[in-house]
Amino acid sequence: MHNYPRWPIHAALILVSLVMLVPFYWVFKTSITGENIFVYPPSLIPVDPQPFFYVDAWYAIPFPYFFMNSVIVAVMVIAANLVINAAAGFALTKEFAGKRWIVLLFLACMMIPFHATIVPAYLVTSHLGLLNTHLGLALPAFSHIICIFLFKASFDAIPPSLIQAAKIDGVPEWQIMFRILLPLARPAVAANVILSFIWSWNDFLWPLIIIRDVEMQTLPLGLSTFLAYFEDTTGSLYAFCVMVLAPGLLVFLLAQRQFIEGLTSGARKG
After folding, report:
1. How far is CA 181 from CA 81, 155, 171, 188, in A?
2. Computed from CA positions of residues 251, 23, 201, 151, in that sequence, does the dihedral angle turn out positive or negative?
3. Per-residue pLDDT, 270
4. 61-267 CATH choice from 3.20.20.70, 2.40.10.330, 3.40.50.1360, 1.10.3720.10
């Protein structure tokens, strides 16, 4: 077997990574310089960088309110997804009548976009009296079918002997899931946390429909409010975008290895 040098592969990957990072660098550079993005030729090095644009974006609108609303909704969504998706994934690892039809129903529901169900979702939220509330913002995102299958694939990869031993010791089903399966399914947990956080953090349409007060807006809505109230805010606008993107990037970077393992857990068993 020939041992080929690996440095060309690493060099190609580094080059591709740099190309993919250019948009992020450009957004950050513009956020600290406020330069005209249509200037030609563009400057690669920041000229006269300053943090004023971040201060402007923070104080020009109630950014702390938007940020806290997004954090509260994201925490609620993550907690609900972990409990509901883990329970549903654990149930799908068992054999019961109609399991095949339930799986097919889940797969069919994945093909229905949220926009097609937004009217009944609004009516249900309105009848529950949850319009213009944090719970109303989080409720439609309490579970995602793809995350249920991530948990199912991860639970299927755990040796059944562990579950059988726990049942022999008299451990209840819910304790088997929370005390045995979840600690062993950390990649699936990480994937659920990252996906539910990003989907909740970046959601724009649903908050736009049910939110009435400015103080209840999340960051994506706050961005539209920022654009509506101010002009000539290139630097502040990009600073706002950086502050919105930073939490999602941070969460992904902290758990990227577990996230990738969670997405590929169904490819192997045992």
Report:
1. 16, 7, 12, 11
2. negative
3. 43
4. 1.10.3720.10
pTM for the predicted model, two decimal places: 0.83
Report d(CA 162, CA 168) in Å as an integer: 10
Contact 146, 154 (CB under 8 A): no
Q: Tokens standing for 256? A: 């990227």
Per-residue pLDDT averaged across 124-143, rounded? 92
Helix (H, G, I), strand (E, B) or coil at 217: coil
pLDDT tens, 208-245? 999 988 888 998 888 877 777 666 567 788 888 888 88
Confirm if 209 and 136 have CB atoms less than 8 A apart.
Answer: no
Handedness of CA 85, 86, 87, 88 (dihedral sign): positive
92-123 pLDDT tens trace: 888 888 888 998 998 898 888 888 889 999 99
| Nearest alpha carbon to residue 218 among 192, 197, 238 | 197
Average pLDDT over residues 45-65: 82
Distances (CA, A) of 103 to 85, 96, 146, 251, 268: 14, 12, 11, 30, 20
Assess whether the previous peptide bond of 23 is cis (omega < 30° from 0): no
Residue 69: both structure tokens together? 């609303």
Q: Are 240 and 226 spatial neighbours (Cβ–Cβ below 8 Å)? A: yes
Maximum pairwise Cα distance, the chain: 72
Can you tell me the distance from the alpha carbon of 70 to that of 244, in angstroms, rounded to the nearest whole number?
10
- Dist CA 245 CA 24 (whole Å): 10
